Structure formats: structure tokens, C-alpha cells
What we know:
Elements: H1 2-29, H2 35-41, H3 46-60, H4 67-80, H5 82-102, H6 106-110, H7 116-128, H8 139-160, H9 170-183, H10 210-222, H11 230-243, H12 245-284
Catalytic activity: urea(in) = urea(out)
Keywords: Cell membrane, Membrane, Transmembrane, Transmembrane helix, Transport
Membrane topology: Multi-pass membrane protein
Amino acid sequence: MWMETKTDVEEARRSRTSFSRRVLNTLLSCTGDMKHLDEYMEDKLFVLQLVVWALRGVARVTLANNPLTGALILAALYWASPWQGLLGTLGVLVSTLTAVIMGQDSAEVAGGLYGFNGMLVSLLMGVFSSAGDWYGWLLLPVCFGSATCVFLFSGLSSVLDRWDLPVAVFPFNIIIILYLVCAGQDNPYFPHLPALPPGTLESNGTKLMATEVMRGIPLGVGQIFACGALGPSLLILGALLLYSPLMALHALLGSAVGTLIRQVVSISLAIRQNVNTTLKKDSNR
């Protein structure tokens, strides 16, 4: 009787151990590049493969290469603004499909390298637009700009590869600047918000607000996708953590440095403004 009880206890312990190990292995399989998913998707429908490629393109904006990371980031964008989420989805799908039609390298397409520039273009067009959300005309430049990114990416790659330089977000920068210059603020179909002159910053007093700094650090990570809400920004940070804890730490550190510098500059401007005001008053006396 005692031997049977001992055997049952050992079997229960082994069962719990094996279950915990399976859970851990499942979690670990969702991290990193998830290469096993590519092997699984080889014989699946093209639509399903396109979804995985597009999600990798979403994650590539943060230099990650994980479709689950991309799915979480896209969910965060829809959480913050369904309109921005739609624009980002349309941009990454159009650019990825354009690369497929052009016959670009299949490994690069599957890795999302032709999707992230299109997504950035579409998101920034939505942010700069002064026509508000759900403005249908904006879908035209979003599709055209996202598709053009693929041509620029392919053309610049052949040039920059000679010096072993990455193309990165050059296509996105070129397209968004050309769009803003050509459309103009008073365009009847594609109006956009005015750009602030260099050095224009709003001063927030002469005190360093710890709460604002702490809140600004995760928001700085979300601003990679033009997301200004705290909850979605934390979800984006969690998506990075899923891919690589080290990358998430680097993102936090970079955002923290930028946020602190922004606060210091703002305080310096406020102090200078107060000094100038005091000097003017003294001179008038």
C-alpha cells in the first residue's frame, strides 16, 4: 500500500514537471525569430503566408523579426486608434504584395524587409493629416506611397550594398518628405498639419517632473509607431520583450535618455525665458 502511494506521488510529480516543461518550451518557441513557423507555413495557403510576412514587417520597424511581436504591435495600434491601425495594416500589406508582384527575393519578403517602410509611411500620413480620422481620400497616397517604398528599397539596395550600408528607413524618409512637400497644407484633398520650425519646444516650467519623465519613457517607445497613448505603448514594449528582453531594455534606455534630455532642454528654455522677461522689465524701469 505504501509503495503504491509512493508511486502515485512520483507519477504526479513527473506529470507536473513535464507539464511545466511543455509550457516553458511553448513560451520559448514564441520568442526570437520563430524560424519553425516558416517551415510550418511552407505548404499553407498564400493568404496565410502573406499574413505572417506582413506581421514580420510590422515587427521589423523595431528591428524585431517575430510575427507574434508584430501581431501585438498591430493590436496596440488598433487599441490606440482603429484608423491608424487600419492605415498601418494597409501600408504593410500593399508594400509586401508589391514586393511579391515585383519578384523580389523570397527570403527577404518572407522576413518582412519590404513591409516596414510601407507601414511607417502610412502611419505618418495619418498622423500629419489634418482631415481627421476615417478620411477616405487618404487611402490613395497611403497605397501609392507604400508601393513606391518597395521600388526605392530595391533601387537603393543595389547602390548602398557596394559600401555595405543598410537601406533601413531611407525609402520611408524620402516618401514622407516628398508627400508633405508636394501636398501642402492647403491641398483640398490631402491637407496636412503645419510643421513646427526647428527648436520650437514648449516649456513646462523650471521643475523636473518625475511622474512626467516616468510616463514619457514607455510613451517614447510607442512613438516609434506614432502612438501617444500609455496603454498601447506598454503593449508595444511587451511585444519587444517577447522577441528579446535585451532589445526591450535598450528601447527603454534610449527612450529614458531622450525623455530626460527633452525635460532638461525644456527647463533651460523656461529659465532663459524668465531671465529675458526679468531683464526687459529692468530695462523698462
